[in-house]
Amino acid sequence: MTERAYKYRFYPTPSQENLLRRTIGCVRLVYNKALATRTEAWYSKKERVGYKETSSFLTAWKKTTELDFLNEVSCVPLQQCLRHLQKAFANFWGKRAKYPRFKKKRSGGSAEFTKSAFKWKDGKLWLAKCKEPLNIVWSRYLPDGCAPSTVTVKFDPSGRWYISLLINDHTCEKLPPTEKKVGIDVGISRLISTSVGEKIANPKHFNRLYQKLKRAQKVLSRKTKNSNNRHKARLEVAKIHAQIKDARTDFLHKLTTKMVRENSLIAIEDLGIRNMVKNRKLARSISDAAWGEMFRQLEYKCEWYGRELVKIDRFYPSSKRCNHCGFVVEELPLDVRQWDCPSCGTKGIDRDINAGKNILAAGLAVSVCGADIRPDNHSVKGRLRKTRTSRRKQKPK
Q: Which pTM was predicted?
């Protein structure tokens, strides 16, 4: 069975919204207090405070007069946020993520409920301390015989409520095998260029609504702080950001699903996107293209449907290498979109299509021969990898 999350929008009643807002606020408060306590313990005494200690702190906080309102909401989301904080610190000490940050009210929030804190019966969901089931918009139904094991309620900055149901999906089956294989090269003007010659343009969702967002942000900047008008203007800005995000996510889901269904093997580059966005001139375009999200979707969808995803090293010269003879040119500026091979005499080599073909060839070599394969006839330090590469080490704050 495969773990899958089904996300839906729901519309709470006034009493449910009041309870959920208080629950999310308490979750944010407990998370921030636990983070502050662990940070202070480390910098003052060099001690690592774990989940057990923060859980005992939560019990003590509930007994105080100032924080006795924590008893008015379900205790499960409060315990879950401490587990999430523990996982965040584990990722930090394992050099897989940055230091955990404090949660902000304007960013919305979420609350996670386990089986003991909700009731699922006849396709209806009751959360803890709620007398009525949630009014969920069932855009798609859960598979027959599947019940949620975890429920996550999310409130986004634009004022929308979402619920995510985590289930063990026994209906998820592997796709039938196909003979097609593809190498994907990503870009800014063209989102992807494949080894079969297909080019898909970048929709540039942010640029489409940039002027509208700019006007809304100008209106927001002129409002008085902590006023109702400023709150309304902030919601307008958040709604525009939500439109951009929804359009981008929808496009990427359709694109990645199409690629996974049509190809049995997909080869991509393991790009250092975090380092690439440090370029001031290209940061906004790279972020709008959302390469990282596209690669993430390809990864878990290939795992779901039995496809093979191969990542090659980011230093492999896919654009500068001729796919006919293997010759590698010394320099190839970004403004050069076509070039001629001085070795075999091939004319008009398309930079992006050539990169897609080389990525596919390297991915097939990794899939067949193994992970430790060095590309020949070039001096770039690096190797092809079949598995995910470890992220760069980051210094703790």
A: 0.84
